[in-house]
Amino acid sequence: MSNKTILIVDDSISIRQVVSMTLKSAGYDVIEGCDGRDALTKLDGRKVHLIISDVNMPNMDGITFVTAAKKLPAYRFTPVIMLTTESDAAKKAAGQAAGAKAWMVKPFQPAQMLAAVSKLIMP
Q1: Any idea where the Response regulatory domain is (predicted)?
Q2: 121 occurs within a structural domain
Q3: Count of the separate structural domains present in the chain
Q4: Per the domain annotation, does 92 fall within a domain?
Q5: What is the DSSP string of 46-88?
Q6: For position 80, which CATH number holds?
Q7: What is the phi/psi pair of residue 110, to 5°?
Q8: Which domain holds residue 79?
């Protein structure tokens, strides 16, 4: 079975490291972006099976990034998990409107993260 690739977008290096280790330990390949603008450059046509994105980031926030990613034909159906400290209902609604399938609040449990990933990841 070929590995599935997950794009992690977060301006916090430590969060990216924890998420990356969690996913790699479960056999996923990981691409990292330090903000929405950087992450868009990583969506260059390669297959990405899932995106995990923070909401509050410099340069381009997560909701703007997801909206932009969903406009790219290759990534229109790529599932998105928002991983954020935000629990505000309006932010959540904006995330869903942009195309996010799940909302996970930091700090997260690795088991909870992997359960959400395995449920949402594209075949």
Answers
A1: 5-121
A2: no
A3: 1
A4: yes
A5: S---EEEE-SS-SSS-HHHHHHHHHTSGGGTT--EEEEES---
A6: 3.40.50.2300
A7: -50, -40
A8: 5-116
Is there a domain that residue 58 lies in? yes
In this structure, how many other beta carbons lie within 10 angstroms of the beta carbon of residue 12?
A: 14
- Within-domain flag for 122: no
CA distance linking residue 122 with residue 72, whole number of Å = 16
How far is residue 87's CA from residue 75's CA, in Å, rounded to a whole number?
A: 26
Instruction: Establish whether the linkage from the previous residue to 58 is cis, with ω within 30° of 0.
Output: no
Amino acid at 2: S
CB contact at 8 A, 120 and 75: no
Contact 123, 8 (CB under 8 A): no
Neighbours of 104 (CB within 10 A): 17
How far, in Å, CA of 89 to CA of 94, rounded?
A: 9
Q: Which tens digit of pLDDT belongs to each residue from 3-24?
A: 999 999 999 999 999 999 999 9
Encoded amino acid at 90, one letter: A
Q: What is the pLDDT of residues 51-106, one digit of tens each?
A: 999 999 999 999 999 999 999 999 999 999 999 998 899 999 999 999 999 999 99
pTM given for the model: 0.96
